[in-house]
Every structure is written in structure tokens, then in C-alpha cells.
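Retry 2 of 3 after timeout on previous attempt. Resubmitting C-alpha cells to design endpoint.
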């Protein structure tokens, strides 16, 4: 297949199984992407990522642009060589970090100005400059620069963000030139369904204008602005309609969502790709996903529990270490505890999505979803 071809292997209800081609190999959906913010998935080596069955790793444009700098990453041979990961990679635009981490952001139609969280330096980004940075970093998939709105937010504020994100999407698509990298557009609109659908309409119009002029199309679509403070049920009021309004012939990527039950439900609504820091962040707090629900290894009940973390899990942590030992590491703030729990949590989500794909291929996704929702594992938040 040609670069960035997308094949639908099966459909089960609204759930899909896709194969997508990149310069660093194919990936298969549904899929969870480990987050390697600063060219590293915290505590996890690239060899471990391969052993875990990781397909796509996400890196962050904001943090890499600040440290060590996009030019240095390019000098090293690009993000794959820099971190020694030979699979497909994705960079988010860094827009979310700009709005969530910076105390002062000045926003205008042309771009945004902010101060680095590292040294306070004043930084100016336009959509064109953001594309240049992501092209230097060199991931297989780049994301457009957009404005992510918080929750709750006034409707007028969300509407302006939809307009601005669309304007920036048009400029990103025009500026993006690297042929071994594709660009995903991002749908915004908060919890307002009509604004979400308007955002998609704008993206598709921008794409058609580009194609009519001999330009490029979006390689897929991100669904941004969810999991920003709203409840899971509020998100699901609109998510399915939004996902299915996006084109069927390319991936749909729900950005920043990573608890197991939400992934399983979202696949059933037509979402293909996910990322989140949750599995590694909660691991550093001593928390694990499991077939019996979320576990807090700090609990005293595990002090003399010499059984595996999760008897149904095949990861190296569960095969080799007891709950008692893991609790000991967590209580002592030993770095190995966070590493072993990170391995488990990443395996849990990657394996869950592999099983979801098998259910789609077998056209049994409704049964898979129902079985999950009735299981103790669904008590994960």
C-alpha cells in the first residue's frame, strides 16, 4: 500500500478495524498510543515498548521544541533515531500544553505568544511555524495547531475557538510539505454538538479547497477538547455522533483519553485511536488497572498478598512479581515500582485494544462491550 493508505478490515456495529500505512510500518486499530512526551515514555525503554506490542508512540511538540529543540532532534536524524524507536510516531501540536501550562497566553488570529515553562523565554507560534517544528521533529503523523477549550466554557468562547482552529487548520494544511509525514486535522466544539458538527464541516471544506487547488488532504482526524473536566457521561452524549460525522476512510483519534472503560465504549462509537498519560502517571502514584478494577497498591491489604498483580494478565510484571513486592516498592518510593506498574498498565491498554480489534474482526463487538461493562474491570475510575 502507498503511504498513509487506510484500509477498513472489518466493521462490527459502529466499531472499526483499520490498517494504516506509514513510512515506519503499518498500524492496526483500535489502538492505544503510549505517550512519550519528551521523546521518552517515562520509565520505559524502547525495547520494552516493542515487547509490549506498542504500535504508535506519541511525542509532544511543545516540550521537544523547548528542550532539546526541534533543530537538535532533526540533527540527530529525526525523532525515531533520536530515541531509537523504529515504529510509527505521532506528534501533537503542543497547543494543549500552551493553553494548559502557560500562565499567560496572548492569542490572536495570526498565532499565539506564550512563555516557556522552562526558562520564561517569550515564544511566538504561528500555524506555519508549528508545522515547520513538527516537520523537523519528523514523526509520521503531525497534528494541526488548534485551540483547545476548557470545560465548562461559554458557548461564544467555544464558537470562537472553532473558527480559529479552522482558520489555523487551513494554514497548517497549506504549510505542511513533508511527504513522508501526514497531517491530521482536529475537530473542536466543546460539548456543543452543533459546534462540533460545524467544526467538521469546516475541516472538510478546507480539505476540498486544498484538493481543488492541487494540494493535500488530511491523513486523519483528531477529536480534541474532550476529557478536559467533563464527566464521562457528558462526553458520551455527543462523542458517537461526532466520531461518525468524520470521514469513514481515515482514522478517528480521540485525544487524551485513556481509562479502559472509556476506550472500550468509544471504540463502540466509531473511534479508532487513543492516547493518554494516565497509565504511566497513575503507575507512578502506585495505581494499576486490572481485571478486578483499579487497584491502589498502597493499600495495606496487599502487604502479605503474594499472588500476581493480575492473575489474568500476561505482562512481565504480573508473571514475575507479587502484589506484596509491588506494594513494598511503591511504599518505599522505589523507581522500580513505578516502572513495573507502568509496564503493566501499558500492557493492559494495548492488549485491551488488541482484543477489541479481534472482536471487531469476528463481528462480536456488541458482545465484547457488554461483557466488559458487566465485568469488575469496568470499575476503573
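Retry 2 succeeded. Sequence:
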Amino acid at each position: 500500500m502507498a503511504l498513509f493508505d487506510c484500509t477498513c478490515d472489518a466493521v462490527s456495529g459502529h466499531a472499526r478495524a483499520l490498517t494504516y500505512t506509514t513510512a515506519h510500518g503499518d498500524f492496526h486499530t483500535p489502538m492505544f498510543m503510549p505517550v512519550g512526551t519528551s521523546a521518552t515514555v517515562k520509565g520505559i525503554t524502547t525495547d520494552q515498548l516493542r515487547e509490549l506490542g506498542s504500535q504508535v508512540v506519541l511525542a509532544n511538540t511543545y516540550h521537544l521544541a523547548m528542550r532539546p529543540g526541534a533543530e537538535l532532534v532533526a540533527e540527530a536524524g529525526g525523532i525515531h533515531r533520536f530515541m531509537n524507536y523504529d515504529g510509527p510516531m505521532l506528534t501533537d501540536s503542543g497547543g494543549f500544553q500552551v493553553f494548559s501550562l502557560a500562565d499567560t497566553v496572548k492569542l490572536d488570529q495570526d498565532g499565539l505568544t506564550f512563555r516557556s515553562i522552562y526558562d520564561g523565554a517569550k515564544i511566538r507560534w504561528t500555524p506555519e511555524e508549528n508545522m515547520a517544528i513538527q516537520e523537523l521533529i519528523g514523526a509520521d503523523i503531525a497534528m494541526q495547531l488548534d485551540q483547545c477549550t476548557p470545560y465548562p466554557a461559554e458557548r461564544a468562547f467555544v464558537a470562537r475557538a472553532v473558527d480559529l482552529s479552522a482558520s489555523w487548520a487551513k494554514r497548517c494544511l497549506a504549510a505542511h510539505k513533508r511527504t513522508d509525514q501526514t497531517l491530521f486535522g482536529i475537530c473542536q466544539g466543546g460539548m456543543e454538538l452543533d459546534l462540533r458538527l460545524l467544526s467538521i464541516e469546516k475541516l472538510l471544506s478546507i480539505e476540498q479547497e486544498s484538493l481543488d487547488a492541487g494540494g493535500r488532504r488530511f491523513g486523519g482526524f483528531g477529536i480534541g477538547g474532550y476529557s478536559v473536566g467533563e464527566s464521562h457521561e457528558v462526553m458520551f452524549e455527543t462523542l458517537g455522533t461526532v466520531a461518525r460525522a468524520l470521514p469513514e476512510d481515515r482514522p478517528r483519534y480521540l485525544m487524551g483519553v485513556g481509562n479502559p472503560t472509556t476506550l472500550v465504549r468509544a471504540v463502540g462509537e466509531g473511534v479508532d485511536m487513543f492516547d493518554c498519560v494516565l497509565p504511566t502517571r497513575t503507575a507512578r502514584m502506585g495505581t494499576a488497572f486490572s481485571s478486578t478494577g483499579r487497584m491502589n497498591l498502597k493499600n495495606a491489604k496487599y502487604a502479605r498478598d503474594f499472588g500476581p498483580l493480575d492473575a489474568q494478565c500476561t505482562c512481565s510484571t504480573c508473571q514475575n512479581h507479587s502484589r506484596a513486592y509491588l506494594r513494598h516498592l511503591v511504599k518505599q518510593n522505589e523507581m522500580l515500582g513505578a516502572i513495573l506498574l507502568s509496564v503493566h498498565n501499558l500492557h493492559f491498554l494495548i492488549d485491551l485494544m488488541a482484543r477489541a480489534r479481534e472482536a471487531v474482526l469476528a463481528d462480536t463487538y456488541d458482545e465484547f462491550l457488554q461483557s466488559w461493562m458487566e465485568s469488575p474491570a469496568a470499575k476503573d475510575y
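Attempt log closed. The mean pLDDT is 96.
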